[in-house]
Design a protein that fits this description.
The complex is a heterodimer of chains A (78) and B (324). With 78 residues, chain A is α+β, with helices and mostly antiparallel strands. Chain A has one domain (2-77): 3-Layer(aba) Sandwich (Glutaredoxin), CATH 3.40.30. Chain A contains 3 helices and 4 strands, in the order βαβαββα. Chain A has a 4-stranded mixed beta sheet. In chain A, helix 1 (12-28) crosses helix 3. The N and C termini of chain A lie close together (11 Å). The mean pLDDT of chain A is 85. With 324 residues, chain B is an all-alpha fold. Chain B has a domain at 59-174 and 223-323. Chain B is built from 16 helices and no strands. In chain B, helix 4 packs across helix 8 and helix 10 (189-219) runs parallel beside helix 13. At the A-B interface, helix 1, helix 2, strand 4 and helix 3 of A face helix 3, helix 5 and helix 10 of B.
């Protein structure tokens, strides 16, 4: 079970990232909770300056860009 | 460097379509094909290069460096240069602002970054390079950096902390120097290259329509009478620069769409400085950005911020007109 959070204030790039994460999770058939974090106070707790960022089980794996699907697969598969 | 592209455009229009080089239509179509391809190519290269620079120097590194070191004024320049090479995303401006505040970085230095980041824009750089050559491009980039450095310094002198939103003010008071924001990316550089290339491709895709429309308008050069605008805007009247900038600020536009229009204006007699000031007004200050900044600043601070930047853009417009 993976706990995935997408940090972003609701810009187009954040939406792209969310869509990409949802797609990869579906494709790999893994169990995961996907949560979008849009509250700036919550986002700042992760100590990132550039959004969108992707957090898996509490670790930041991507920040400041939209990850490609192959990058996401590599991260989410293990 | 672009000879092969010109050959391609010549071949396509004159040989494949069989439209004569001496006709208005042939010349306009040739210009259109050549310029569109050249600018899209330049754009891809510039965004790709910036992506690589950013992979090595993420903005977190700047923040950590500024939080640890005092540069006695040099930090404004550093922040502005960094802002110029960082592709601006309005969605990142708030987390970035907070991150800087928490690191105890002076407000003025943060403003230096925030002014330059949208002002020196990768799309505009590519289009300046493609349309006006490297000299104008360097002047545009350098003036954006100077504007950010000086503008941020002036804003820093105004003691604006009191106009931050209440919760940001608290952060400000509890700010700690020498703290770190997360710098490392989980990915190695080689792993990131495909996503940098794709990011560049996405930006090109996103503006291709504007470039085509804009250059399409530009291709009609021959159809607009020479010095059409000179009578109204080119006579060096003092009020043209401020009017151009003030009209530009609410007119938040894509740099890709506005630049070809500017090229036509300049070709038809509008002074280059007025045109560049107009462009800076459209891309540098935007209402969407103001709405986002409302989360961290009071309206009053946003108004001061925009006011100072507007004033400096107008000033640099006058300077440009003196230089050219």
């Amino acid at each position: 079970m993976k706990d995935i959070k997408i940090l972003g204030t609701g810009c187009p790039k954040c939406k792209q990232t969310t869509a990409a994460v949802e797609e990869t999770v579906k494709k790999l058939g893994i169990e995961a909770t996907i949560e979008k974090v849009e509250d700036i106070m919550e986002i700042m707790k992760y100590n990132v300056l550039s959004t969108p960022a992707v957090v898996v089980n509490g670790n930041i794996v991507f920040k400041g860009r939209v990850p490609t699907s192959s990058e996401l697969e590599a991260i989410l598969a293990n | 460097m672009f000879d092969w592209l010109q050959h391609f455009a010549d071949w396509l229009i004159y040989a494949v379509f069989g439209i004569g080089a001496e006709t208005h239509l042939g010349a306009a179509l040739n210009f259109f094909v050549f310029d569109t391809l050249k600018i899209l190519l330049l754009l891809f290269l510039i965004v790709f290069l910036m992506g690589i620079v950013n992979a090595y120097f993420p903005v977190e590194r700047l923040r950590n460096y500024l939080s640890r070191n005092k540069l006695y004024g040099g930090e404004h320049l550093l922040a502005a240069v960094f802002g110029a090479v960082t592709p601006f995303c309005s969605c990142s401006s708030v987390p970035l602002f907070i991150g800087f505040v928490r690191g105890g970085i002076p407000l003025g230095v943060t403003f230096s970054f925030l002014i330059t980041s949208p002002l020196v824009n990768e799309v505009a750089l590519a289009m300046f390079l493609g349309m006006f050559g490297w000299k104008v491009t360097v002047i545009y980039a350098a003036s954006g950096i100077v504007l950010g450095t000086v503008g941020g310094w002036v804003l820093g002198k105004l003691n604006l902390q009191r106009y931050l939103s209440d919760w940001v003010k608290q952060l400000w008071e509890n700010a700690q120097r020498e703290t770190d924001a997360l710098e490392a990316d989980a990915q190695t550089f080689a792993q990131r290259l495909p996503s940098i290339a794709r990011g560049a491709w996405d930006i090109v895709k996103g503006v291709v329509l504007y470039v085509i429309i804009g250059i399409g308008i530009g291709a009609m050069h021959g159809f607009v009478p020479e010095n059409f605008f000179t009578e109204y805007l080119g006579g060096g009247q003092w009020w043209t620069v401020p009017v151009a900038v003030i009209v530009a600020v609410p007119l938040y536009a894509n740099a890709a769409g506005i630049l070809p229009v500017i090229q036509v204006l300049v070709a038809k007699g509008v002074p280059l400085g007025t045109a560049i000031a107009f462009m800076m007004g459209t891309v540098g200050l935007s209402l969407p950005e103001a709405t986002l900044l409302k989360k961290v600043m009071t309206m009053r601070l946003i108004a001061i911020f925009f006011g100072v930047v507007t004033a400096f853009i107008i000033l640099s417009g006058y300077l440009f007109n003196l230089v050219f």
